[in-house]
Predict the structure.
Amino acid sequence: MKNPDLQQNIHDSLFQCLGEVPAVRNLSYAPGEADSQSDFVIVVDTGLDTHRLMIGIRGNGQPRYAREAVAGFLMQSGQSPKNAYPVFAAPFISKSAAEICREAGVGTIDLAGNCRLAFDGIYIERQGRPNRFVSKRSLRSLYEPRSSRVLRALLFDPNLTWKLTDLSEAAGVSIGQVFNVKKALADREWAVFDKEGLKLTEPERILRDWGKHYTCTKNTLFEFYSAETPAELESRLSGVSSETGSRYALTSFSASSRLATTGGHTHVYAYIDGDVDRVADLALLKHSDPESNVTLMLPHDEGVFFGMQEIAGLNVVSPIQAYLDLVGLEGKGTEEAAGTLFSRVIQKGWQPGTTPS
């Protein structure tokens, strides 16, 4: 959306919103002043008084842009006319950004229909309307396969501060890819970037948001049945994978039971980066959908093996990947297992001075 269109749509939304208030007698438009933080002004006449809504528009409603707008409004507060009320506007304003504005006494309005305007006895608040302007590219910039490799490296130990070149090398992606992820994280205030490098500030929020967008079906899933116990089969898969030269790693319940030392599990989950059918044949697995108790996944990206470790002679994905594969399954017991894995392993490993699992 081009800026003139954005400004017109914000203008129309404000007029529609304020026009529904009985106390408002008249609304008029005035252009923003040259050195002002406002793009335009809405003059509100209540019959008893006149108020000037100073509208500052940004093309992005993430926290970093809201904070910049608030700072600009505060810097010019002493120069503002009487009864001036600053309002931050954007196509869509996130909850965190709206909270920043609320605490600073700045109003908000977006084109999704969310708003909070509070001045001289007039109070309008509408929240919870979804983002109609969500950028698929923006989401992909964080959770697409190559970018997710950067997240895996960052989440492995959130206490580290990374130089972008070092992060690029560790994640196995280009410096440009790292820069895009850095920008997306900084815009949401989930990370800080300074002369020392990039460091996460909200690792839990990142992981939980990633989990909401994650699905195991991005991988190619093969369902099988085995009469062996999970422990016997997982050991057999290790030997067969070595025999066929396939890279493998246990994940989901098969991984969390070892990482978090939880109780037994009845379904085996494993990544196989190789000929899945050959591995299945050698492991004596039978194709089965309704009664399957084995899921072998051909990974959509090799990043799922980042941070893989060996436990009791078996390859196990990182706690981050195991968590994602649990929440991505959405089956019985997955939420509880993911919560246990997070509290016992991930959160504990994120504590300063500890060694991540």
Notes: DSSP finds 13 helices and 16 strands in the chain. Residues 58 and 90 are 5 Å apart (CA to CA). The chain has a mean pLDDT of 91.
